[in-house]
Amino acid sequence: MVAISRAIQTGYGSEIMREQEVLKIIREQVAEAGDDAALLLFRNTYLILTTDMLHRTSDFPEGTTARTIGWRSVAVSLSDLAAMGAQPLGILLAVADPKLDEELIRGILAGARACCDSAGTRLVGGDIDRLDELTLVSTGIGEAKRPVHRYGAQSGDLVCVTGVLGRTQAALSLFATEEIARANDLFCFLPRVDWGIKLAAHATSMIDISDGLAHSLHLLARESRVGCSIEEELLPVIPDLTQAIPSASRSEASHTVASLIEAILFGGEDYELLFTLPESAIPAINPAVHYTVIGRATDGAVLIDGYKLPDRGYEH
Amino acid sequence: MVAISRAIQTGYGSEIMREQEVLKIIREQVAEAGDDAALLLFRNTYLILTTDMLHRTSDFPEGTTARTIGWRSVAVSLSDLAAMGAQPLGILLAVADPKLDEELIRGILAGARACCDSAGTRLVGGDIDRLDELTLVSTGIGEAKRPVHRYGAQSGDLVCVTGVLGRTQAALSLFATEEIARANDLFCFLPRVDWGIKLAAHATSMIDISDGLAHSLHLLARESRVGCSIEEELLPVIPDLTQAIPSASRSEASHTVASLIEAILFGGEDYELLFTLPESAIPAINPAVHYTVIGRATDGAVLIDGYKLPDRGYEH
After folding, report:
1. Which site among B92, B116, B211 would you substitute to test the A interface, given the most A Cβ atoms closer than 10 Å to its Cβ?
2. Fewer CB within 10 Å: C terminus or N terminus of chain A?
3. Contact A154, A278 (CB under 8 A)
C-alpha cells in the first residue's frame, strides 16, 4: 500500500524523486505510519487495512490471463497483510473495464477467489465500473494482536528473506519470450500470509519487498534507525531468473551478471517478506517457514558486501 | 458498493441489462448479500466494508474542484456505511492520476479529510498510482452491532426518505450552466452517517438511493419481499432542482414537469437514506434525523400514485 505504479516496462530506478514527494504529501495528510498497511485499534486488537491499485499497462504484460490478473490483484493486498503478521478477514475487489466482458470478469473473479482460498480468506464484496483501461483495486482487511512494523529492528539482529528472489523478474522475462504458461504460473505468487503470522511472534521488524529488495532494506533500516550489511552470495535466487539470462552472455560479459544482481536488488515486484530477528529466536521459528539469512542489522549504513547499497527502488 | 458507473452525461435508464448480468456474476462469485456493504462477523459485532470507484469522465463534471472530488469520493463510501447503520472506523483512498499533480493531490486529500471529519472518522491509508484518467477508489470500514439490511421491511411499514431529493441532479444542472460554486457546494453532500446510526435501532430495512429512488425502492421491496406504494406529492424536492428547470417551460409543457419527477425518481446519484419502519416507532426516532414519510410497504407491487413504478435505475 501507499505505492506508486509506473510501467513495468520502463524498468526500475529512474524517476523516483517526484513520486517520493507525492508520497510525502499523502503521509502528511493521512493518519498513516510508514508501514505496509494501516492500523486501527479495535477492541484490544488491531484491524489491518490495505488497498492497492493495479492496471493493465503497468502491471499485466501481454499474455497475462484473466485468472492471473484476479489472483495477483488480491495477492498484493494479502502480501501487505502478511508483512504485518496479520490474519486476513476478507478482501474487496473493485474491477473496471471498458467492455465489462463477461469472460474476463469471470476469469478475474475466479482467480481472485482462488487466491483468497489459498490464504484461508474470502472475497466478501466489490464494485464494478467502466474505465478505458482495465483497472483493479483490491482492499484487504486483517487482524493482528501484535502487528509487526517496519520499525523495531535492533543492531545485531539477523536480516532474513522468505522464499526466493526474482520471481516477478523471471516471469517478465518469460512473458517477453512468450513462455506464457510458466510466466503466468510464476506471476501467481503465493502471498506469505501463513509465514507472516508464524514470524510475527519473533520478528522485530518486517516488510514485503514489493518495492525491490534494496529499497525495502533502506525503508526497514530507516524506520528502525539501524543500518544493515547483507551478502550477495547469500541471496536466494529463483532458478528461472538465472536461466532467463542467456548463459553465453553470462560467461562472457560481466555487465550481464551485474544485470542479474541488479534485477534481484532493484527490480520488483517480489512479494517475499524481509524481516529481522535476534539470532536467539532462530530455534523457535516454525520449520514450515522457508527463509534465508542474508545479513545483519548494524549501527552503520546499508551495505552489500561492504559497499553502500544505493536506495534505488522499484515503485509499483 | 457493487455498482457500475457509466457517464453521468448519458442520463439514466437505458443500458442496464448488460450491467445487471455482470452484477449477477459478481454476486454468484462473491460472498455478498444484496446490501450496500459487505458484512464480516467479528467478535460479537459486524465489521462493515465497502469499496467504490469513481473517475473523472463519469463522476466529475467540468468545474468540479479537487476538494469536491476528494470529498465526494469518501462520501459515497460513508453513505454505504450509513445505509447499514454503521459507525465508520476509517477510510482508505486510492488515487490514480496521469500526472500526479501536487496541487490536485493536495486538494483531493484535503477534501477527503474534511469529509472524514464531518463523519467523525479518519483517512487511515491509501495508494497512489498513474493512470490515464483520474480515478479514485475509496474503501470504508465500519462497525455495527445490529446492521440494517435491505431486507426486513414488513407490509404496513412506513416508507421514509432522509433529507431532500434531487441534490445531485441540481448540481449537474448548475455545473452545466456554469454556476460552479453552488454546484460544488451541492456536490459535497453530507453522508448520513449520524442519521443512519440513529435510525438503526428502529428501521426494518434501509438502503441509500445512489442508484435512484425508483431502483432503490425496487431493490428494497425485492429483498424484503414486499411491495410499496408512494405518493409523488410527498416527495421532498430540493429547491435548487425546481429552480434549475426554467419556470416558463414548467408552466407551459407537461413534459418538463415530467422531467422533474423523472429526475427525482430515476436520476442519481442522491445519497439520502431510504428506510422503512413501523408507524409505532415514529415517536422514538431522534428528532435530529430529518426525514419524510413518502408511502407505505404493501403486499402488492411498487407503485407511485397507484401506478406501477418502472424499475429503471441510475447505475453509477
Report:
1. B92
2. C
3. yes
